[in-house]
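User: Fold this; tokens only.

Assistant: Input:
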Amino acid sequence: MKLTRSLCVAIVEVVSKDKEAKKRIDSFLSTVMPDGLGWTGSARNYGFALKETFFGNGNPTKEQELLICYGIAEYTAKILNIAISKVKAGSTLSIIEKVSYINRDLHGIAHQATLFKLLNGTEFVFDWHATLSSKNPLIYRTVKDFEEGTNSVMFENFVDSR
């Protein structure tokens, strides 16, 4: 089993049709920043940080916590695991064993995204926070790529793995 376009489509469909996921992920920033940069979520986080530094207590509010990387990763893992538990054997999503999240600390910046494990042990990562677009996450074909912040591809440009 490998990561295929049809599996990616099925995953994105679950997330992009979920009202709460769209509320947490989708942002007007994704219309002005190119998804391929992967900086859209960081831009939103900096806005939160500035606001809370000058007008709050310096920490994210409960509402902001739902919108930053771990709020998105934890929620997408939750709804995808629910979707997987309801699929019939042989369906596209049935090859996923579980969905969770993965953390990285790259150049002193902590980040979390959605980790997928297939029944054969293959793992890959979807990062909706990077694009703030429920229909166009960054995809990392390997955990190593995510940890190093390299070789990501936008969903809209994803082709079957070799």
